[in-house]
Amino acid sequence: MRAFPGRAFWGAALCCLTALAAWAGEAPAAWRKDAPVYQSRGGLGYLQFCAACHRLDGTGAPGVFSPLAGNPRALDEAPGFAIRRVLFGGFGARGNHVFRMPSFASLRDEEIAEILSFVRASWGGEGGPVTAAQVAAERQDAASPPPSATPRRFADFLASPQADLLLRGLREIYDTKRQLPGNVGAALNCASCHVNAGTSALAAPYWGLAGAFPIYYPRAGRVITLAQRVNDCFQRSLNGTPLAEESPEMAAIVAFISALPAPAATGEASGRGIRRIDRSLKPDPARGEVVFQRSCAVCHGANGDGLRNAAGERLFPPLWGEGSFNLGSGMARAYTAAGYVLGNMPVAHSLRFPQAQGGLTEQDALDVAAFFSHRPRPDFAGRAHDWPNGGRPPDARDEQVSAQVVFLAPLGLAAAAGADSPRP
Ligand code: HEC
Ligand code: HEC
Ligand code: HEC
User: Fold this and answer.
1) CA 327 to centroid of ligand 2, rounded, Å
2) Which atom of ligand 2 is nearest to the CA of 188?
3) Considering Cα of 199, then 293, then 336, then 361, what sign does the dihedral take?
């Protein structure tokens, strides 16, 4: 007996869903037709919660994460195994490493059903769609956290009258390098740092920002708008060029960010920004190199260049070199990078939602951040004019500040210092 409806029903259901999406807003823009993941609630749930590890095309990451495409354990007719993996998490061993998948019990039964149905409809196998009742049956006797409505789900954008604008913004954030090649110099996307496309706490999430800007910004020494803050990340974090503030591309990004509501909590509990590091801790980059090789190199490459698949496409982002963020970015500052790493890296290490992230001590995070942030990377000419009204933080990248010398000398990186000095 089949516990779920057959293929024909599934096809009809999908078709109705698409029709419903079109009816709820305007007809979907042409680009969405070539991008299946943006067409259904399940596809958008997959992008938001699964794609960082299993990749947008379901092919996984060699030596790190298993593929879901063609994988009988994801696509089998009986979906119990796949449902339990998503509800309760799991782990897999590769060489010397154990990689963990977090529990997604905070997603509702219907959401998990939609995501697994998308996986099964997209990547082969005999299984049909998964129903919410099947997920509920597996969840029943589990002592797992109850479903939660935070963070805001991209899947809900489909029903918005602004669906096309919001999804275009999402795509620019998630796939920045390919969508806006003229504005991105680095081999990075916004979502390379802003985890789950800006919906993960303490990974500088985008929620609530629309109400927080315009804001006085000490680095610029003036009040800046949200669009100007976005352009800061284009020029520094993405080592690129700003978008015209009135362009449709910028309008889509600002609309997307503005659609993520402010959290109820304030301060660090709101998840805004990144972890802050105790300034009395002092970095030891030589120790940081050991942490890097042990806990980071498997995904970011022993040479910091990221991990590529057989086709040469980067699966995980670089941490230094030509394809990395430049010296004017927050991530090039040891304490900022350490706060980011403490909250978000390594991925697949703990049981924490949404990426099984974290597990380093504060000292480890500071040491490894001091190591990778001070490897050679592109420069940003404008950094000399930062903090015009004072308040320049001690870890800001400035040749007059001794920090670089302190960090570079013990590592014997004098030769690399050339890449760190300002270009004429
Ligand atoms: C932080 C990384 C990470 C995220 C995010 C993640 N997974 Fe996984 N997933 C893993 C790991 C690790 C395994 C264990 C199997 C392996 O790769 O060795 C796994 C296994 C699975 C399996 C079983 C496949 C097998 O061969 O054992 C399924 C199905 C699956 N994941 C689905 C999902 C879905 C659906 C989502 C999103 C809701 C998701 N995963 C999010 C890391 C992740
Ligand atoms: C190399 C990593 C990196 C990349 C890539 C990146 N950012 Fe950022 N972004 C940061 C960091 C770090 C912060 C500052 C977090 C803090 O100090 O609280 C930040 C802050 C922001 C803020 C302000 C957040 C706040 O709480 O005030 C916005 C908005 C933003 N980024 C948008 C973007 C957009 C849009 C893109 C892509 C065009 C992008 N960023 C790319 C690292 C990055
Ligand atoms: C299992 C894979 C994995 C491991 C291990 C890992 N990362 Fe990452 N890292 C990622 C992924 C994937 C991203 C993209 C953002 C996201 O979705 O988490 C990322 C993003 C980053 C970023 C921001 C983007 C960039 O390239 O500048 C930094 C910085 C970073 N990682 C540092 C580290 C450090 C330091 C360690 C070791 C302590 C580490 N990572 C370990 C997978 C990993």
Assistant:
1) 15
2) 5
3) positive
Closest ligand by atom to 346 CA:
3
- The ligand with the least distance to the CA atom of 45 is 1
pLDDT more than 70, % of the chain: 87
The average pLDDT across 146-152 equals: 89
CA distance 57 to 240: 27
**Residue of the CA atom closest to atom 39 of ligand 1:** 50
Are the C-beta atoms of residues 103 and 351 closer than 8 Å to each other? yes
Position 353 scores a pLDDT of 94
Alpha carbon 106 to its chain's center? 19
Which pLDDT band, with edges at 50, 70 and 90, does 72 fall under?
very high
pLDDT at position 215: 97
Question: What's residue 141's pLDDT?
Answer: 65
Question: Could you give the CA distance from residue 93 to residue 96 in angstroms, rounded to a whole number?
Answer: 7
Closest approach atom of ligand 2 to CA 330: 12
CA of 345 relative to ligand 3 center, distance in Å: 6
Q: Which residue has the higher pLDDT, 32 or 249?
A: 249
- Rounded CA-CA distance 331/380 in Å is 13
Stretch 35-53: mean pLDDT: 96
Q: Is 345 in the pocket of ligand 3 (CB under 6 A)?
A: yes
- State which ligand 1 atom lies nearest to the alpha carbon of 107: 38
Residue 347 scores a pLDDT above 90: yes
- Beta-carbon contacts of 369 under 8 Å, excluding residues fewer than 6 positions away, are 283, 288, 334, 335, 337, 338, 340, 341
Handedness of CA 209, 215, 221, 222 (dihedral sign): positive
Q: How far, in Å, is the centroid of ligand 3 from the Cα of 46?
A: 19
- The closest alpha carbon to 200, from 210, 188, 192, belongs to 192
Ligand 1 midpoint to CA 311 (Å): 22
CA distance 396 to 383: 9
Q: What Rg do the C-alpha atoms of the chain give, in angstroms? A: 22
